[in-house]
Structure formats: C-alpha cells, structure tokens
Design goal:
1380 residues; Rossmann fold; Serine Threonine Protein Phosphatase 5, Tetratricopeptide repeat; Immunoglobulin-like; 6 domains; 28 helices; 54 strands; 27% helix; 26% strand; Ig_TPPC8_1st
Amino acid sequence: MARTGKTAQDFIQSSFSPIVAVLCSQKVENIVSKNNVTFPELLQPFCNLDWEGQFREPGGNTCVIKNMKLIVRDVNWKPLQPTEARRQLNNAVLYNYNDKTISVELAGRSFLIPQSTHWFDAWRETYLDVQFPSDHEFTKHFLSCIIVGTTDDENVVDTFNGLNQQYAQLQNVMPPKLPKWFNNCILKTYLLLHDVSVVSKERADAVFDTLKHAFGPNSCFMLPINSKSTSDANVPADLWSQYIKRSPDSTSDVASTLSNLATTPAEQAPIFPSQNIIERGEDTLTGSVQESVHPLTSPETDVYDNANSLQTHSFSGSVESVSVSAKGIDLSTEVHGAALNNNDIEAIKKFLQEYASKALLPYIEKQISQLSESVANRKGVSRSLLSATKRWFGTGKGGNATGNSAVVYTNDCPELQLRRLGDLWFLCGQWQRAFDTYHTAKREFYADSAWLCYAGALEMAAISAFMAGDSNRKTHGYLEESIVTYLNTCRMVQYAVRATLLSVICLTSSGLHGEAAKQLIRMTSEDSDLRSAMLLEQAALCFLSGPGTKAMCRKYAFHMVLAGHRFSKAGQKKHAYRCYKQAHQVYSGSGWRLATDHVQFALGRLAGALRRAHDAVQWLAAPLAPHPPQPPAQQEAFLREYMHAHQQWQESSEERRSRLEKLPLPVAEVSMTRVACAGPAPLSSPRRCGATSLCVHAPRRDPHEERVWRTLEEMLVQVARGAVPMIFKPTLDLYDDTTDCHPLVPQGEPIQISVTLWNPLKISLILKDVELLWRFTPLNESGDSDDNNSIYNEIALAQGVEVASNVIVGQKLPSVVLEGDSKKSLIFSLTPMKVGQVYIQGLAYKLINAGEGASENSSTGVSIQGKVDLMSGVKSMDKRLEITVIPEAPCLQMTFSETNPDIISGEIRTVDVELTNVGPVDMKNVFIAVSHPECVSVVTPDNVVDDFKILYDEKFREITPNSEERGRGAEAWRRAAARHVRAARCGPAVLLLRPHSAAARLHVLAYYETGLERRPYRLLRHVFRFNVVDAVDITINPRRSLKTVNESVAEIVNLSVEVSNISENKSDQINIELLEAAFLSRQWKITNLIAARDKNDILAPREKLHLVFKGHRILEAVPEGRVETSCVKISEGHPDSIADITSPPYSKFMINKKSSFIDSADNTFNQDIEKRSGLLQSMFVLRWKAQDETTGRSAVGQHCLWLDCFNKVQYGEKVLVTDNNPPLPLDENESKLDVTENKKNIKKDNVVMFKMEHSKQINHDFNERRLCIIPVTLSIVNCYGVPVRVFINMSKQKNRETSGRELGWTGALHNGPDADSKEIGVSIHLKKFETRRVQVQGVCAAPGTYLVGSAFTVTTQGTEPHMNVTDVSNNTSLLVLQQA
C-alpha cells in the first residue's frame, strides 16, 4: 500500500488521544474572534506536546509518556449531521487528489503506481473523526474539562460559578445524551484568558490571584493573548488553516438532495438496545460482506448510522445525492492569528505543557489507581441474575450469534471499569498494560455475551499488541474476530469498517498483504460507494505490494477497475479516471480485448466528464480498433459515445480550424491503394468500348500479365528505336505497394486513385462528402520544388471554405455506405492543372451515426468530420502517393467496336479500331505490339503488308547459324520483335482476331513518342478476353511414295487428314462444314482430294471426317521470298469458299498455332533451326464454317498446321493421351507415333528413297545350272535439295541369321565410301532431287524364299550431319525361287 510520511504507530496514537472539553464564556469567544478562530481552534495546532511526562502505576513503577497529543473540543461539540459528514468525507477525498506516480518493475513489466494515497489518509482520518462516541468504549469520551473565563469580567468568580453550573448540568445528563464523559468525576480546571490589548497586566494578575484563592492554585491557569503591537511581525505561517472546518449554511442546496436519508432521531435509544435491522428482502448486510462479492450494481437508499452510536446506519453512504464538485466555504482569504505574536504562541505552548504535567497527568495517575483498586476489589462478584446464568450456561460465540445480547451494564459496573482502565492505559501509551487489561475484559464480555463490548475489547487488544511490538497471528485473529462480530452479530458496520482500517495497518506492517486485501474487499457493499471505492483501491494496492514474485498484477488491475467504478458512482470522477488508468497499464497489450475495451470506454467517458475532451476522444477511439469482439449493439454504443465526445471536442477546440482529426473508422487498407496515370478514358459511345486494360481496383498484380507487358514494351522499343537500353525499366502507369518510383502524369490529365476502406465493426457506417486530401508544391524558377508556397486543401476543408480549382480539380463522393465487417474500394479522380508535385495525404469525410437501420440517404444522427491517413505504416521506398506533374503531353485513345466474348477456337473476327490523340501536343511514331501475332493482325489503310513474305520469313527463310550464343539470342529477339510489332497511325484501322484455346487473352500494346525528357514515350494497353470453345481438331499423317510416270519415278505426297468436331458443350449444337484446304510450300503442291464419305457432309458434334490429299513435288526452282500456294475446294460453290487463301482476312492467318515468344523466348531460336531440317516443310491450311444451331450464330475460321517431316503424325487442337508403351509398327518405314507435342521430335525423313523392281517368283533348274542370276533394278531418288553420295552396301545382309538363305550379288562392284574400306557395293552421286535407275544382279544358289530388300543397306553422305545415315530397304520385297 502507498504510504505517506506518517507511520502506522503515529496514526494510531493520533487517532486515540485524550479528548479535553472546553467550556467558555461569551467574552472568551469575543476575545479569540479577533484571530478568526474559536478557542478550541486556537489551541489545536499546539496540542502535539513535544514533552515527556512520568507517573507511577499502582505497583509503584514509573511510567513514561512521550509525545502526548491532546484533542481539544468545545463541550457542546456534536457529531456532524449526515449531510455534513458525507460532505466532509467527500471533500477529504476530493481536495487531497494527487496524481504523482512512481515506476515499479513487476513480472518483467514497468507500472506507474501512486506515489502516495493522501486522499485515503484524509478520508480515513475524517472517517474516524466523524464517528459518534459510543458507550461501549471510552477513548472518544471527554477525559477532562477546561472552564475558560476572561480577565475582563467584572466579577470573575461569579462568571466561573455560572460556568460551573453549566458544567454540572452537562455532567448529569443521562446517557446517551451528549456530551459523553469518561466517568462521573472528570478533571476540571480553570483558565483565565487575558486579553493583553484590553486589560492591563496588573489587573490580570489581581484577577488571577482571586481565581486561585477561590478554586485552588493547582487548578487555575492564565493565558495571555492578543499581545501583538503594530511594531511586531506577523506570525510566520497560518498555523490554524488545516484545523478549521466550517460547516456550510443549513440552507445549502446540498441538503436538498438528501430526501432519502434518515435524520438524527430526537431521542436516542438506551445504552444497549436490541437492534432493528432494515431488511431488503433478506439479510442484505450478511451477503454484502462476502469476500467473493464485488458489487457493481446501482446504490440502494442511503441510511445514516451516526445518530446513535449503536444504530446500524452509515454516514459514508453513496454520494449520488452529494455534489462533490461543490466547494465548501472558501477560507483561503481568511487571516488567522492576526492579533497574536510569537510571545502568545509560546504562552499557548507553555500553558498546554503545564496543563498536561500539572493537572492531566496526575489526574490520570489517580484514576488508574482508583480503577485498578475497584476492579481488584469487585472482581468475581456476581452481577445480575441473567449475567450469572449466561456465565454458567452460555456457550455461544460472538461470531456465530445473530443479534446483540440483552445484557445491561451500569455505568460503574466492574466490566466497564475494566474497559475504562484499559482505555486509560492505551491513552497513556502503556501498550502492554493496555493489552493485558483488554484481554481480561474481552473474557468478561464474552462470558456475558456482551458482543459489542466484546468486539471492542478484541479490537483494542489487537491494536495494543501491535503498538507494543508483539503482534502475531493470534492478535491478528483478534481483529478478524472483532470485525466479524461487529458485522454479523452487532450489525455495526461503522465499527467494522474502523476495525478493518486498523487491522489493515497491522497486517500490512507484518507483510500479510493478501489477508489485508481480503478484509478490505469484505467491507465493500452497496450502502456506500465512496467507502467501497477507497477500500477496493487499497485492496488493489495490497495485491501489488506482495513480494516481487508474488505481486498479483491481474488482481490489482481488476480491483482498480472496481474501485474506479465505485469512485465514478460516488461522483469522484478524478479518482475514478486515475483508477481506470492504473488498471489500463495491465490490460494494455494483454490480449484481453473485452476487458481492455471496457476500461478504455470508461476512461473516455470519465475524461469527457472531467472536460478533458482530447483525452476522451483518444480513449473512446481505442475500443473501435479492428476485430472488436463486442456484439453489434455494444459496438454501436461505443461508436455513438465516441462521436458525441468528438463532436464536443471539435466544438471546444480551436485546433480543428487548421487541420482535420484522424478518425478510427473506417480503416484504410494502405497496401491496397493504387494510382493509375493512363490518361482520360474515352467518351462512351454506342456499341464501342475503350482500351481498358489497367484496372485501378484490381486486388493484386498478375505476374504473367506483368511479364507480357514488359516483353511487348521491349519489342516496341527495339523496333521504334533500334535497340533496347542495357538497363531497361518498364513504363509504369499503375502504381501499388510493389512499385518504388514516383508516378508521372502530364499536366491536365486525370489521375485515378483507388482507396480501399475497411469497416471492422459489425454495424454499417455512412460516410458523406468523401474526398482526397492533397498538398501541391509548385516548381520555382530553377525547376525545384518550392515548399514555401505549398497549397493544402485540408485547411480549407477544416474551415469549411471552398478550395481554389485552378491548381487541382478533385472529385467528391457525396455518400458511401460501408457494410459491417466489409471492405470497399473507392475510386477518385484528381486532375492537376499546374506542373509541380502532388502529395496525396489522406481521405477527408464526414462520419454519420444514424443508428440501426442506417441507409445512404440518412440525414439524422451525429456527424463528425475527420480524415484517415493514407501515408501511415507505408514503407519508406513507397512513393506511389507522391505524384510528379510534368508538362503537357500527347495522349492516345483507342476505341474498339464491340465483339462477342464467346468465340470458337480458330474463328476469324474483324474489329474496327479508332486511334485518337486527345492531348494538346502532337504524337510521333505510333506502333502496336500484339502478344500472339498468329492470332492478331493490324490492318491500316496506308500500311500494306505482304502476308506471304511474313510466312516466308517465319517458316522458309534460311537462317544463318551463329556460333555465339549471344548472337543467336539477339537474332531471335530481333525476328520476334519484328513479328510482334506493326507500325500504325492515328485514325481508323482494323484488327483481325483469330484466338484459340491457348491464346484466349490477346494483349495489344500501343506505343507513341511524346518528345518529353521525363517521359519520352507513352503506352496504352488493352486486353481482349474471350471464352474460347474448341470445335475443330485436325490430325495429319504425311506420307510419301514413289510413282512411275512415263518410265520415270516421281515422289508423291499423301496427306491423311482427320477432321473432328470436338465440341462437348451440351447446351451448344455446333456443326462444322469444311470449305477449303490450302497447301503453302516451296516444294510441294496438292492436286486432288479423296474423301471417305461425302466431303460436303456437315460434321455434327463428336463426328469425324477422313480426307486424303495427294500432291507432288515442285521440281522448278522457286524464287527466294516466294511461297507456292495450292488450294483444293472442299465445298465447291459455297459462298464462303470463293475467296482463297491469298486474300484477306484469310491471308493474315497463315501461321500455325505456336508458343508465343513471350511465353518461351529462350527456345524460339532452337525451334527455328529445327523446323527447317525436315523434307516436307509445308503449311496446311483448312478453312471451315461453324453454325451454332442453338443461337443461330455462324462463324468462319481456319486452322493452320505446319508439316515438317514425313511419317510423323501432326496434331492440332487436341492432344491425345496414351500410355507409355509405343504402338506396334506395321513396318519399319512407318512412324512410331509421338503422342504429345512435348516429346522430342525425332525426324523420320529418309535422305534418299529407292524402289526395287524384280520378279516375284522364278522357276529355275538348279540341276542344270548351279546358280540362278536375278536381275534387280533400283530406282533411287534424292529427297534433298543438295547433292548426296549414295553407297549401296551389298556385303551385309540383315536377315542372314533368321532366314537361313543368303542372296549374293554379282556384277561391277566398288569399294566402300572410304579408301581402305572392306565393304563392297555400288557407289553413285545424286544431284538435288535427282532420280537414277541402277541395274544389279542377285545370285541364288538354292531354291527358297528370299528377302531381297534386306540383302543390302544404303549409306548416304551429304553436306549436313543429319544426311550421314544408313538405312535399310523395305524388307517385305520377297522373292520365291522354285526348282524347275
């Protein structure tokens, strides 16, 4: 517990001091009134006697009294009335407020706790001071009486005789009338007050001699005062101010509120009456003192317990009816002791010492002797019959009884005499003797079941032991039993409270803080909020005062909250605020959100009541933090209270005129703030849409999209400027939390800013007049920012004036509704009209509290204006809200004709596009890049493009190999850039689109130059998003053969084409009709078509059509850059098949579906090398028409499929999925099908082809001729356009081991390809595409079946490594040789 400078022993000794009565004449009051004090007040500052006295006890030993304190009261003193008592208690707490704290370390945390509790000490002293003196104890009774007269009286003896008569009347009153006397024969002394300023010293001495002669010299004293002259200095300090307590006028409005309070009864009850307890349903007092109860309910009607010392009322009840803020009589301007000088002060001190040593101490010695003798003589004598009966047969214990005893003690009975003796020992500071006496008395009272006296004896015995230094568990138990007896048996709450206050002092001094807190909590009840608050606060401090490892911080905080609540009910707002603030230290950061919010809410309301408007706003804003656990109704109450506090603060604060206050609601999601600087959007027009690829309120960036835009921009820079900078930074038009550069916007162009607001509460919020807060800094003459001339719109909004529109034109949202626990993105447009720097600082709005059922149009409720900061919590590198305004620049807009997003893969669409410069500056060098050039084609009136040249460059142009990897990559990059980028100009143009399933999103990026240094070029983005449906699939198996025409062998190409309708959507009925097939090649032409069924048939879903196209090789030389076209009409006469492949839009899409350079830039060059190594190298184009029977929509499209080599199946849209086992080949020349495009493409082309001509069956008589000569003609064709050398090796036979028959050869044979080769065969040289017939002779020695084709192998050698291969002829060429 926090302590003041006074120790526990000093407090107890000062609380139980001898009380001296003063009976004064009227002239005495007149004399002392010159000093603005009464006579008791005149003496009170000097009653702490710095003096040591001695007296003898009955046993003859000497007892020493040190530092005696006297309490001087007027003989007519009466306890305060209930209203005044409560006012004194409340003022003691109110005017002793002190918020000084000290820091302590507990449980690893630092807490600020009160440095001292002056208010508690003052309340405790006042509480003990206003108590009514009881007849069961004598420490509060008058021990002596000083009769005071003056030297100015004409007959001083008559004056004192009259005062003696008054004293005799007061002495003989029957109890419990006031005043209360210690016994029937108290010490009576006479004081002659001498007014030095009026009466001469000689007269005073004469009068004093007369007085001593009349009443005896040992009982008379004289005190000179008012001796100050004009030359004397004033008394150094006002010694009387702290002891003067003036009661307010009885007509004060404070008393008017006490209609429910019981008044002092006119006649008081006998000494020990049976008590009539006010019951509320049941015995509420017993329940109110249970240790586990911490009441927080409304106070009951207060009652008064000071009218009679034995009644169970409380003068410290709730102060709901007492205005603690009303001040008492202002005595600060009163001057006390104005007529006194230092000699008078010394005279007063001397008088009190002489009085104590010469009169009071001898009287106490005499009384102790008499009481000791009386108790010893009468001890053991039976008292009344009832007392004797209870002594022998009574077994009840004080704590268990339910009511007071009916024992009636006379005033001079031995039991009360024993109590008087104990009180005298205690008042003299003889603690051990007092303990022995009280201990004896408590046994007597217990035997008589005199429970009130028993409780009092226990209380004083324990305190005596504590003061003697012999306090232990047993004496602590005395106080515990005393408290319980006061409460449960005697129902005397005020004495239970007093005993608790004294017990706590003893317990805490012994280190028993937990037991002290337990007793303090027990005494809290509903009958007194102030008392409960004081005790709960002390209990909390006890919990915190234990040993360092046992300090109970959570209990401390909890009981501080309870104390704050009771302080608030008692009207002590400052103390309530202080207690809640102490508790908040523990709950803050603890994770106990409900408790923390309750404390913060209470602090906010108390701060508002104390007119701390700013603190109230801050405290009430805290419970509105994100993720509140309260139900919606509670959250609405929190919000309503906050808004009322904020409104009051705004009305009283002058600071609001220069800035807006940050509001806790809603919460800005700073990480989701986005800024777009892409120029103004085009005006809306029917059936047209603008380029809208930038989405300012998109949740996050798509990495794939970013990679696409970056690559397209690099391609545009490559084409427009010839090279890409070594350090390339892509242009940013959309800024978010991942960017680290200032947004750039040309002067006069709007900026789109998306701000996401989050409502963390479960109730709706209404925002009005929402707009951005900005600061604009212009540029000075040197081009730097001029911060001194910055312009803010926050000041204008705070003052309610319009903002100048010649700098920035902003947008204001009139009303926004945020649903509970939801996020909403608001998009604002801001147009800077001057060059400079724009800083977006926050969002200004008016928060409306319209209660439950609020809507966007609600006009009632509380409205507060504030802002939310958009810069708080942002990383230092984030500059998206610091916008640089550059000079005017060109601005491109693109508008497109509307197109249906539903499309069939391969369908050709035509989209009209309009390019317009809406900026004030001319633009130059307009280029457009597309992500998939095989799917998008840009057609402008003045830009004629040779589509076949594009196809030639893409598929047929010879690539010069580069030995360096960097060189290969650069070459591939330049080709890709040229393929993706097309030049354009402002005006109308046409976009031809042919999306497919792998390119459902087509990106278009426009580039144009501005001529500005800060932004040399600008970009405009657009994305076509289609819902692609697969309907047509093509599979081609190209094969070749040799055909004899006019006795010459020629190559024939056979394309086995399978067309499938693969539409699987049950809601659509898409039928496919084939129109035309085209073959684009430099080596082959197709001539005719063979269909498995009618070629004009319509393909329904899940149907297939097999076609075989036949063609031949082009033997004539084709010029460089030219591609031969051959077409076959499948549906002859169809309107859509009239135009052939050479006319747009079909000529724009002659490139097959392939991986875009953007998706696989690293592999493009290698693919180009590989595709030029095949023998077929042709593009097959199939045009078709689709009819949707459900919607009636028709579409024309075409599929392209690149054929690189023979004997390899090429797949179109759909990829077959098979197992890992390869299919069984029909023969060795047939391809082992590659079922996926992802597998490595193994070339199946032969360098040469050959055809064997020989007899199939021969009859030969081996008896006649041992050998059979068989003529064989080999027709060999060079399939490549380069010369090759062919060696027919006849020394090896593939099937020698399996067939058992060996075919030999004869004729002119040559050595192998090498000079030292042992191989024998035929060697020939073939020019490109040359066909030659070779005659050879086979030799057979026996009849049988021979595989002629396996009797030799063919080895080719050419200029390229892949031509150096060895191949075997067709092993199905059989020869049957029979014996003739």
